[in-house]
């Protein structure tokens, strides 16, 4: 049964379907692993044992009766602590929300439950999702799978750790500037950033509503497709026959060349493998990317501060000071500058889609850096700021341009390969990802 802890969600679902895995035994195996793990309390904010067992019992009945609701019926899933769960506290990694207990499930959690998924509990995260590092002294900082001296990446830090340490086969996170893809890359996982507006954010604690998205962290691309379908209440993308032959990719040269040595080298090795598998690789720059990225000071912080201002200023001492500072950078920005930035962003999105229409996807290193040292982040303010911005620099391209994105692990630890596709092109992206995964294996 311990092998179940390292199987993919898809394989577990197939085992339930063919009768070789009992959903209740599977649930108990995961709950026991969570309980026995020394890092339980810094990975899971709140396990939901009673809910999990009740849902597993129902899944077991459906499996016996031949009435399973879908391929992940009976499969356990962890949830970032920003998704409302009825009767269980949802605090988004912040003392500002301590004791907040929602009445209803978030729509994505309700969809997953309707699909038969088993809710294992809520995982820790960066405070209010406003950091790519995963360091949170207010609640907890989950471990990095490679080295406990390093941070795990954020803001979906506990989501990544729950998978990396065998405490969940699938985890649901959010991505506003890279919060699914950065921890996925630093923990050798697959992470899917969905298009803005594709997956419901109803019942999710917001950061910046014009860019907030929901997405799965998982062990392989098939699980990303299954996870997306579960969140939407739809059908998973058919990945059979996916190929790289003749597929055209543009490597963003400026973002690749300016990444640090380890991620750049791992990325280039991965691109060479894609080329060997038949992909057509071009290199260049897209002017709209720079236009959009130059706007980021006017996009994230003003919107986030507008959402959280009243609660923050009522009790600022409850916050981690560096997160408080990030929110407050949006406090004094000129409203005309912010509105102009959103108009320019919309124009950049159109220009980007026009200039990249001849490519199946854009490629760049998922993160420009590897996971930084936790203790140095605590002691060195300048290091914290530099590393936090670098952690989200590459991923943020997808957010400011409204794209969907997929990160795959490379052969080098803590380095990912990221593909970006146009809005609402997840099906295309997942099929490309399946073929890329084969080439990188």
Automatic annotation (TrEMBL):
Entries under InterPro entries matching the protein: Amidase, Amidase_CS, Amidase_dom, AS_sf
GO MF annotations in UniProt: ligase activity; transferase activity
Protein name as annotated: Glutamyl-tRNA(Gln) amidotransferase subunit A
Pfam families per record: Amidase
PROSITE patterns, sorted: AMIDASES (PS00571)
Name of the top EC class for this enzyme: ligase
Species lineage: Bacteria, Pseudomonadati, Pseudomonadota, Alphaproteobacteria, Rhodobacterales
Domain of life: Bacteria
EC number: 6.3.5.-
Start and end residues of each Amidase domain: 28-430
Keyword entries, A-Z: Ligase, Transferase
């Amino acid at each position: 049964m311990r092998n179940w802890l390292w199987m993919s969600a898809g394989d577990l679902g197939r085992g339930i379907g063919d009768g070789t895995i009992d959903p209740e035994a599977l649930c108990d195996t995961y709950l026991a692993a969570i309980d026995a793990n020394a890092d339980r309390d810094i990975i899971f904010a709140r396990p939901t044992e009673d809910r999990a067992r009740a849902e597993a019992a129902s899944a077991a009945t459906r499996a016996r009766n031949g009435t399973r609701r879908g391929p992940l019926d009976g499969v356990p899933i962890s949830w970032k602590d920003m998704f409302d769960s009825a009767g269980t506290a949802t605090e988004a990694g912040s003392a500002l929300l301590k004791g907040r207990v929602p009445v209803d499930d978030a729509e994505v959690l309700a969809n997953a439950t309707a699909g038969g998924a088993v809710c294992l509990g809520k995982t820790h995260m960066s405070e209010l999702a406003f950091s790519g590092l995963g360091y949170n002294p207010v609640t907890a900082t989950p471990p990095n799978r490679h080295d406990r001296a390093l941070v795990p990446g954020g803001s979906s830090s506990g989501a990544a750790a729950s998978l990396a340490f065998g405490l969940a086969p699938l985890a649901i996170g959010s991505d506003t500037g890279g919060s699914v893809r950065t921890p996925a890359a630093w923990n050798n996982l697959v992470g899917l950033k969905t298009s803005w507006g594709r997956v419901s954010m109803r019942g999710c604690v917001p950061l910046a509503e014009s860019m907030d998205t929901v997405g799965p962290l998982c062990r392989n691309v098939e699980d990303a497709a299954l996870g997306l379908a579960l969140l939407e209440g739809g059908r998973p993308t058919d990945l059979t026959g996916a190929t790289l032959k003749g597929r055209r990719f543009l490597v963003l040269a400026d973002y690749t060349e300016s990444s640090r040595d380890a991620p750049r080298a791992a990325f280039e090795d991965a691109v060479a493998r894609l080329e060997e598998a038949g992909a057509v690789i071009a290199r260049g720059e897209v002017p709209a990317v720079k236009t959009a990225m130059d706007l980021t000071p006017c996009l994230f912080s003003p919107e986030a501060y507008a959402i959280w201002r009243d609660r923050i200023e009522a009790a600022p001492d409850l916050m981690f000071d560096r997160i408080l500072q990030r929110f407050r950078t949006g406090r004094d920005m000129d409203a005309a500058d912010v509105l102009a930035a959103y108009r320019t962003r919309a124009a950049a999105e159109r220009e980007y889609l026009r200039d990249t229409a001849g490519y199946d996807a854009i490629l760049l290193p998922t993160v420009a850096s590897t996971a930084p040292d936790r203790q140095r982040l605590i002691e060195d303010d300048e290091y914290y700021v530099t590393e936090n911005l670098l952690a989200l620099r590459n991923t943020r391209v997808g957010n400011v341009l409204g794209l969907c994105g997929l990160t795959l692990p490379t052969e080098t630890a803590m380095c990912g390969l990221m593909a970006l596709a146009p809005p609402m092109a997840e099906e295309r992206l997942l099929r490309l990802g399946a073929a890329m995964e084969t080439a990188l294996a």
